[in-house]
Design goal:
nine-stranded mixed sheet, about 25% strand, disordered N terminus, three-stranded antiparallel sheet, single chain, L-amino peptidase D-ALA esterase/amidase, 16 strands
């Protein structure tokens, strides 16, 4: 069980002793925030895919892009200085820039439900998107399309997020600082925290990093550049300090995250949370935000919880759940040809 409620150790022990184990199984993923749905669609023949997050009632939205090689769509609309304040969905996709087509399918799905800004007979949903580069995995001519986005939206539910090598994480890999032949499988991970006052901060991450995935608690590599034996780790941090890493070549990476909260945030406050959430990337990926990554984090604030939000608190917790989601992505991933997963090396 992943603990959600922040409380004292004594209170947690009492709770564990008094509640049957079946009742302890709570949603500790992005969909812990009411009003948020998540759906995946995976093209297993490659593999690649897309992951859709829906906020059908609309949610205050922002984004912060730190990597130098982003593939994005409709991110300018999320700038606090621009007119539109909400988004109705976010799409994360494989397939590099080709995968951005999946957002069109999500827009079609939402318009069919009459969700979006109404203009006569039309409804215009706001659906920003970002894609990661997974073309070297399998046949790079197989990419997520608008139809994939439509199917992912159709499959979206409030159930706990399915993690691992699914959706946008199906073709994700990590540890490419040592070249593709030494890389490992990445994927989708998610985590949520609930405060005693009812504030929920959750995250979902599609991890496709140039660097290694690091467990912040132990400082150890979870998945990353494999040594010549194929089973142990070189450690990209050591490689970097020895001068063994070069950042030339293609931009074949990118880690994409979404933070969701039930707190009421302005667009400017949501932007601040997105900025602070990137600390989670820095804790769990090394190196990160490189010239060959397109790292980005979106924020969705549904505002369903009454009261004034503490933006600093939410931003700090966003970094925590982002870091935990990254580690889970590596641990829940499953291998594809040429890319073993962390579970294979245990």
């Amino acid at each position: 069980m992943r603990t959600l409620r922040l409380t004292t150790v004594a209170a947690l022990a009492a709770l564990t002793a008094s509640v049957p184990s079946a009742q302890q199984r709570v949603n500790a993923t992005l969909t812990a925030v009411p009003g948020i749905k998540v759906g995946h669609f995976t093209l297993t023949e490659r593999p690649t895919g897309c992951t859709v997050v829906l906020a059908e009632a609309g949610a205050t939205a922002a984004v912060d892009v730190r990597g130098a090689a982003p593939a994005t769509r409709e991110t300018d609309v999320l700038d606090p200085v621009n007119l539109v304040q909400i988004a109705h969905g976010i799409v994360l996709s494989g397939g590099s820039a080709f995968g951005l087509d999946s957002a069109s399918g999500v827009m079609r799905y939402l318009e069919e439900k009459k969700i979006g800004f109404e203009f006569g007979r039309a409804h215009v949903p706001i659906v920003p998107a970002a894609a990661l580069f997974d073309l070297p995995v399998g046949d790079g001519l197989i990419r997520p399309s608008a139809e994939c986005g439509y199917k992912a939206a159709t499959a979206a539910t409030t159930a706990p997020v399915v993690e691992g090598s699914v959706g946008a994480g199906a073709g994700a890999t990590v540890g490419k600082a040592g070249g593709g032949s030494h890389a490992m499988k990445g994927g989708i991970g998610s985590m949520a925290l609930t405060l005693p006052n009812g504030v929920i901060v959750s995250a979902m991450v599609a991890v496709n990093a140039f660097g290694d995935v690091i467990d912040p608690e132990s400082g150890k590599v979870v998945a990353g550049v494999r040594a010549a034996d194929g089973k142990s780790f070189v450690d990209a941090r050591t490689m970097l300090r020895s001068g063994a890493i070069r950042f030339g070549g293609g931009a074949q990476n990118t880690t994409l995250g979404i933070v969701a909260t039930n707190a009421r945030l302005t667009k400017t406050e949501a932007k601040r949370v997105a900025q602070m959430a990137h600390d989670g990337y820095a804790r769990a990926i090394a190196p990160v935000h490189t010239p060959v990554d397109g790292d980005a984090i979106f924020v969705l604030a549904t505002g369903s919880l009454a009261g004034t939000a503490d933006t600093g608190q939410i931003g700090a917790l966003a970094a925590d759940v982002i870091a935990s989601a990254i580690v889970r992505a590596a641990r829940e991933a499953t291998a594809v040809a040429g890319y073993p997963a962390a579970r294979d090396l245990r």
